[in-house]
Design brief:
Number of domains: 3
Subcellular location: Cytoplasm
Shape: globular
GO cellular component, one term: Holliday junction resolvase complex
GO molecular function, one term: four-way junction helicase activity
Strand content: 5-15%
Order of helices and strands: HHEHEHEHEEEHEHHHHHHHEEH
Number of strands: 9
CATH class of the largest domain: Alpha Beta
CATH superfamily of the largest domain: P-loop containing nucleotide triphosphate hydrolases
Pfam families: AAA_lid_4, RuvB_N, WHD_RuvB
Number of helices: 14
Strand order of the largest sheet: 2-3-6-1-7
Structural class: alpha/beta
EC number: 3.6.4.-
CATH topology of the largest domain: Rossmann fold
Bound molecules: adenosine-5'-triphosphate
Largest sheet: 5 strands, parallel
Length: about 350
């Protein structure tokens, strides 16, 4: 049995991108949260505009659904420049990239999503393009091969990655500015939700927004998705208004709990506590206990549980924290991992 978990996945589901397009903030002052990134970026853009030069290349790092694509579009809009979009996996050969670079217009913004997944030859071509606005087109093969230099228009590369650590240093070093996107605070997500509700003509009182925001795993994409589900519930069951109780009832129905944990997250915690006494237990044993692949448990459920301070990865295996016991309404044993530690300090353990 595999547990359905689209609702709180940070990746876009089905045709969600279409709906998202309608909800995207268009300018920097509409972009909610990420205060430091916004301020730094507005300086970079403002000074480029004053100098009438394209700004330095920008790297954005952070998890899916935190607003990287939105920010890339905003950068182009603020510069009044056209935007070209591609992604690392689409750049399999150097020629794929050359075809794009050679047709850029002056000042154009080139957005490369998942830039860490670009093929090596394309990556090497990009170094020169970023630094000297030039590409070397290799003609022929073997000893007879020659390279023809080709000037390209000055442009701004905006790269997005969920894994900044996977970028080779020479590529990382060529970005003049790196924006680290963090998870959003509950009050920021409330603002995202109020804005989306306005655009979707949904009546959303503050306490309804708060209830949805706290279950949204720090991610605007999830917040917007939960809002749509709650709206459906409110329309069908209670004629529209999303009160706190309506939001809670809807999300309970969809099995997203008060902290944003879904069925898989809870199944993992439940097995860890009830079957293995809180651990330590190996990943594959834990995965068998919940009927999932180890990779699903590791990639999908664990990062959020770790971030919430509910689970720790230790050299001896997975361990439940004292907060995990309490989350499931159980009394933690006195020696529970993290007992006496302020929840949150275990993040990233
Ligand atoms: N700061 C924000 N303010 C308002 N809405 C936001 C913000 N950040 C993201 N969103 C909304 O969340 C949705 C997802 O954002 P976006 O597509 O930019 O994320 P992403 O980081 O590029 O994710 P991915 O890499 O998976 O595409 C969009 O609908 C966008 O409007």
């Amino acid at each position: 049995m595999s547990i359905e978990r689209d609702l709180v996945s940070p990746e876009p589901e089905g045709d969600e991108r279409l709906i998202e397009a309608a909800l995207r903030p268009k300018r920097l002052d509409e972009f909610i949260g990420q205060g430091r990134v916004r301020e730094q970026l507005s300086l970079v853009l403002e000074s480029a505009l004053r100098r009438s030069r394209p700004p330095d290349h920008v790297l954005m790092s952070g998890g899916p659904g935190l607003g990287k694509t939105t920010l890339a579009m905003i950068i182009a809009a603020e510069l009044g420049a056209p935007l070209r979009m591609t992604s690392g996996p689409a750049l399999e050969r150097a020629g794929d990239l050359a075809a794009i670079l050679s047709t850029l217009s002056e000042g154009e913004v080139l957005f490369v999503d998942e830039i860490h997944r670009m093929a090596r030859p394309a990556e090497e071509m990009l170094y020169l393009a970023m630094e000297d606005f030039r590409v070397d087109i290799v003609v022929g093969k073997g000893p007879g091969a020659t390279s023809i230099p080709l000037d390209i228009a000055p442009f701004t590369l905006v790269g997005a990655t969920t894994r900044a650590g996977l970028l080779p240093a020479p590529l990382r070093d060529r970005f003049g500015f790196t924006a680290h996107m963090d998870f959003y605070e509950v009050d920021e997500l409330e603002r995202v939700l109020h804005r989306s509700a306005r655009l979707l003509s949904v009546e959303l009182p503050p306490e309804g927004a708060h209830e949805i925001a706290r279950r949204s795993r720090g991610t605007p994409r999830i917040a917007n998705r939960l809002l749509r589900r709650v709206r459906d519930f409110a329309e069908v069951r209670v004629e529209g208004v999303i009160t706190r109780d309506v939001a809670a009832a809807a999300l309970n129905l969809y099995e997203v709990d008060a902290e944003g944990l879904d069925r898989l997250d809870r199944a993992v915690l439940d097995a860890l506590l009830r079957k293995f006494g809180g651990g330590p237990v190996g990943l594959s044993t834990l995965a068998v206990a919940v009927g999932e692949e180890p990779e699903t448990v590791e990639v999908v459920a664990e990062p959020f549980l770790v971030r919430q301070g509910l689970l720790a990865r230790t050299p001896r295996g997975r361990v439940a924290t004292a907060s995990a016991w309490m989350h499931l309404g159980l009394t933690p044993p006195p020696d529970a991992f993290g007992a006496g530690v302020i929840p949150g300090l275990l993040d990233g353990a």
